[in-house]
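Thread: Newbie trying to understand structure tokens

Hi all, I'm a second-year student working on a class project, and my supervisor (Dr. K.) asked me to get a predicted structure for one chain before our next meeting. I've only ever worked with sequences, so writing a 3D structure as a token string is new to me. If someone could post the tokens and maybe explain what I'm looking at, I'd be very grateful. Here's the chain:
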Amino acid sequence: MRILVVGAGAVGGYFGGRLLEKGEDVTFLVREGRKKQLAETGLVLESVHGNVTLTPKTILSGEEAGPFDLILLSTKAYHLKGAIESFQEYVSEKTAILPLLNGISHYHQLIAEFGEERVLGGLCFIETTLDQEGRIIQTSAKHDLVFGERSGERTERVLTIEDAFSGTKVGYRLSDDVCRDLWNKYLFISTMSGITTLMRAPIGPIREQSTGRAVITKLLEEIVFVMKHAGAPFSDDAVAQQLNQIDSLGYSMKSSMQRDMEKLSQVEADHLHGYLLDIANKEKILVPVLEAVYTNLKVYETSL
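---
Reply by user tm_fold:
Sure, no problem. This is what the structure looks like when written as tokens:
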């Protein structure tokens, strides 16, 4: 299986690196600066699951490389359009595209560009960052990747992908209901990022306040209601399940969006919360806490 990883950043570089470490045929589609950096230092993974320095194959967009069997896509949502343009020439009729972005709306863009049949469902659970020297620093016990056909079928191609990850140091799972997995993670991410960015605080100080816990619950209820209107397959106890998960988080846990704000980086406000707000407005659903979350993020964006 020929695998193209779009970018060699914190997420794609980590999962692509673990595949390369195993011996899979992996190529990284990168920009000129990252290509030069990788040629000088190699692909460096510093991880709680084992350090490794690898010598990766890299290409620049436009270079001839032939079609790939699998394209692993983990860009930020605000870079998605450019990413699609960079790899579309490497997609054939048999290419599968595995996106690891948070949220749902990117599927509309990918399906519109490449068709239903080429786009798999995918998500990941990992804490990782790219440092100033270009090293990938991975710090979480979880480094899990979940994927599957959005139809739930166990096709030959997803079994081949499962085989590729077999024997790597990655926690991976072939899901029979990846759409449910996607919505569940979207619910958690949109709530966690929304409340921590709104309060400018880790989750612990927020939830220990009775009013803070009430706001978390209200935001969860609003988002679940909106997502159900969008077809999310939630059970009746979805809010309670998510509250239990939030209660299990460490006191000082921050969302990645909050850390991005602290670094004065771009955030995925439109992709995550704006998408939900559009649905709420269309369905005439009142979502005052979600509106406050989105407004806070858009005001932040104007300061960049």
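A couple of things are worth pointing out once you decode it. DSSP finds twelve helices and ten strands in the chain. The chain has a mean pLDDT of 96. Feel free to ask follow-ups in this thread.
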